[in-house]
Design brief:
This protein is of the alpha/beta class. α6 crosses α8.
């Protein structure tokens, strides 16, 4: 039995109609479920018609002007053409990266954005960045081999995480990417251009037979500040290029070509996100960077303007559509992917993320930039990490060495936070840091403040690894990078099959967000043409395809 819409929930039309619709009335749905099914059939046009004072929807039939002498089956009120998810965003992003739509997933360090995650998305023709930050070169090398074997034609990307205190780590990553022909890199957390990121970009430049510049090495820069954006929007600095030429890392031709193109092909504007973030509001940040991009484009006249996408807060169809309507070339998700089955996070961490609400996040000291006072956004629900990490930073600010810390506080450190003696922690720190940056250990021998920072970073660094590996007994210390988007996502999927972490697959989440965004765009088109729809039609809930 078909239930028609209640009188108070009926579709209403306030526009003017001059068209007629002809077709079988059997194809017109007048009930709520039927109308929504027609609206969700994005591959077909949707006609809103009125017959016998009832408004319905159909994907079939044809239209013509009402005063042409023909008698239509129904009055055509309005209509929308077919709408594909590939129409959202900038079409050049699809062509450039060879993907099916303007959606990507950002890198989450320590392999949270795992090989399995990148491969699953790549096979679905969605761009994903492997979380290489914080991993040993051998681990990154293994990931390159595995991903390239599974995705010989792509798409995939690898993260290049800025390491201001350890530039050699950056350089080793670049060397690996050039050695294995990784042609798309996501550069994130950069405070300035470094020779390493310029080296990667310039080393892939050449000319084709038509004397056009070919950019083999594609660069996506993730940032949140205009002063950083301008550096990636402009050509590489001549000084850095000359130094690279002098070191025989790039040729004179490559240096010349690098002065004619922007450092980045794409800029991902990062708003209020998990991990490293400035907590910037997207509605203010994106227009500012778009304006800056346009100014630079007018100055340099690049053949292809730099695309500007967004990250931070993208976790629902509404947020994705809002970004596209504001002019984003593409959208990037982050936090929500950590709760998916392919992510390199432990089952316990996935469960905590699936329970998170929007207020369940806070800022805490970052391990990689601890001494600089840089913070990142983490989950506070179910873990004491952010409170304990903040305590460590307060001790670092207030004292110049471990020995200056009162005995009572040192005892708390050993028993409650480290669960080991400070001497044992220092021995572990020496063993670890010696393999990455032995000079730092030598400096710490004569710098007690640095030694204290390294001891505190032992906890900050391990806490994220405990979260990923599922370290038993350390659950209360898990460091889980997370933004408020996680809570928004959980609100959206509540009651659907995606409410369970075991059902969350990254490609499926991407399809649901993009399909929902396209559906909501169709609803907005109809609304702007005078169709008033009940509240039920303004929601898209995840449903298994």
């Amino acid at each position: 039995m078909v239930n028609t819409i209640n009188k108070s929930d009926r579709l209403k039309f306030t526009g003017a109609s001059t068209q007629a619709w002809y077709g079988s009335l059997d194809t017109v749905a007048f009930d709520e479920a039927g109308i929504k099914a027609k609206l969700l059939n994005l591959a077909q046009p949707c006609y809103i018609v009125r017959s016998n004072n009832q408004i319905g929807a159909t994907n079939e039939g044809y239209t013509y002007t009402a005063n042409n002498g023909k008698s239509g089956q129904a009055e055509l009120l309005t209509a929308t053409p077919p709408l594909s998810t590939s129409q959202l965003g900038d079409a050049s992003f699809l062509d450039f990266h060879q993907v099916k739509y303007a959606y990507a997933t950002g890198a989450m360090a320590h392999g949270i954005a795992s090989e399995e995650l990148v491969i699953a998305l790549g096979k679905a023709k969605i761009l994903s960045s492997f979380g290489a930050g914080g991993l040993a070169p051998s681990r990154v090398e293994s990931a390159i081999n595995q991903i390239q074997q599974a995705l010989p034609a792509g798409p995939y990307a690898f993260n290049l995480l800025h390491s201001p205190s350890e530039p050699a780590i950056e350089r080793r990553a670049v060397d690996l990417y050039l050695k294995y022909g990784v042609t798309t890199v996501e550069a994130s957390a950069f405070l300035d251009l470094t020779p390493n990121v310029v080296y990667y970009r310039a080393a892939g430049l050449s000319l084709n037979s038509h004397q056009q510049i070919l950019t083999k090495n594609k660069l996506i820069a993730k940032l949140s500040r205009r002063e950083i954006a301008i550096k990636f929007l402009q050509p590489a600095p001549t000084k850095i290029l000359k130094e690279l030429v002098a070191q025989n890392l790039i040729t004179e031709l490559q240096a010349t070509l690098a002065e004619k193109i922007p450092v980045a092909d794409d800029i991902t504007v990062e708003a209020d996100s998990g991990g490293h973030t400035d907590n910037r509001p997207l509605v203010c940040l994106l227009p500012s960077i778009l304006e800056l991009r346009d100014e630079v484009q007018e100055k340099y006249g690049y053949q292809q303007p730099v695309r500007v996408g967004v990250a931070g807060g993208i976790s629902t169809p509404q947020s994705a559509l809002a970004a596209f309507m504001m002019g984003a070339a593409y959208v990037v998700t982050g936090s929500v992917n950590q709760s998916c089955v392919e992510a390199g996070t432990s089952p316990h961490t996935k469960e905590l993320l699936a329970q998170a609400e929007m207020p369940d996040v806070m800022m805490a000291p970052a391990a990689d930039m601890f001494e600089m006072g840089v913070k990142l956004q983490v989950l506070k629900r179910g873990t004491l990490f952010p409170v304990r990490a903040q305590k460590l930073y307060e001790l670092y600010k207030n004292y110049d060495s471990i020995n200056e810390i009162p005995a009572v506080e040192r005892e708390k450190l050993e028993k409650q936070i480290f669960r080991r003696s400070l001497n044992d922690v220092w021995e572990d720190t020496v063993a670890y840091v010696s393999t990455r940056n032995p000079d730092k250990i030598h400096k710490a021998a004569n710098n007690p403040k640095l030694k204290m920072a390294l001891i505190f970073r032992w906890y900050l660094g391990l806490s994220s690894r405990w979260s990923n590996s599922g370290e038993k007994g350390r659950e209360i210390d898990y460091q889980i990078w997370c933004g408020p988007a996680m809570g928004s996502f959980n609100d959206w999927v509540r009651g659907s099959y995606l409410s369970e972490p075991s059902n969350r697959k990254v490609a499926d989440v991407a399809d649901q967000i993009m399909t929902g965004a396209a559906y909501l765009y169709r609803i907005q088109i109809l609304k702007m043409q005078g169709l008033q729809l009940p509240i039920a039609f303004h929601q898209y809930r995840p449903s298994q395809f």
